[in-house]
Amino acid sequence: MADINAVARQFAEYYYGKFSANRADLVPLYREQSMLTFESSQHIGVGNIAEKYTGLPFGQVAARISTLDAQPTPTGICIFVTGELQLEDQEQPLRFCQCFNLVSESGSYWVLNDIFRLNYG
Amino acid sequence: MADINAVARQFAEYYYGKFSANRADLVPLYREQSMLTFESSQHIGVGNIAEKYTGLPFGQVAARISTLDAQPTPTGICIFVTGELQLEDQEQPLRFCQCFNLVSESGSYWVLNDIFRLNYG
């Protein structure tokens, strides 16, 4: 098995890079069985997840990862991230946390579970 | 399949109740394959996880759940929690987030993945 911490780092760099710059590029990470909980809204399937990500009501953001943890699962990797999002029109960054269950398939990974929450304070 | 949100609520009530009052009672939730990442320390197996939980350097805490999300996985449930811990000797509560992958077995659930992080601010 590939070093899961290296896979987690590579995934997080890709994911938050695309989340910051062009969220439509996140879509290939998802499949029909994929689930996204983004704040309190729930989305199942690549089409609904694409619609949610591309419809988020903010443009470019700067995402900073504070912590990145990973553990193996029977089908892939569990990844857990805390960090900050800096929106263009806001002074204070928003703290967030997010977990993913990635599934390993043919030497690559796709996202089965994706749960995102802001940490209001 | 049982309503996963009901299972998640029941699990979280049990887990944070025991986490607050008597962390030794968390041990039956774990198995030899279980993994715990608590802040930056990693623990595998029920004995090591028990040692970590019972050795945490604080007594009773009050845990408050802010958000609780759940999604199904091929083997059980993915649970994601944000909340606050109020320690006896601290004025400000500590914000935390935590994810679990629970495995369904014989009508019950055990914890395969457990990742806990404080959100410093």
UniProtKB/TrEMBL annotation, chains A, B:
Has a role in nuclear-cytoplasmic transport of proteins and mRNAs. The lineage of its organism: Eukaryota, Fungi, Dikarya, Basidiomycota, Agaricomycotina. Pfam families: NTF2 (PF02136). It comes from Serendipita indica (strain DSM 11827) (Root endophyte fungus). The keyword Transport applies. GO terms for cellular component: cytoplasm; nuclear envelope. Residues 7-118 form the NTF2 domain. CDD domains: NTF2. Signal peptide: none annotated. Gene3D superfamilies: 3.10.450.50. This is Nuclear transport factor 2. Keywords: Cytoplasm, Nucleus, Protein transport, Transport. InterPro entries: NTF2, NTF2-like_dom_sf, NTF2_dom, Nuclear_transport_factor_2_euk. One of its GO terms (biological process) is mRNA transport. It is found in: Cytoplasm; Nucleus.
